[in-house]
Amino acid sequence: MAQPFGKAISGETKKKGGACVIGCLGCCVLLVVLIATPIVGGYLFAKHLVESYTDTKPVVFPEPGLTAEETESLLARVLEFKAAIDEGRRQELSLSGDELNAALRAYPDAASIAQHVYFRLEGDRIRGEISFPMEMFKLPFMQGRYLNGSGEFQISLKDGMLDVRLLSLAVRDIPLPEPAMAQLAEENLAKDIIQDPEIQALLRKIESLEVRDGRLILVSREKNTESVVAGAELPAAPDYCGVA
Question: Is residue 63 packed enough to be buried (19+ CB in 10 Å), middle (13-18) or exposed (0-12)?
Answer without folding.
Answer: exposed
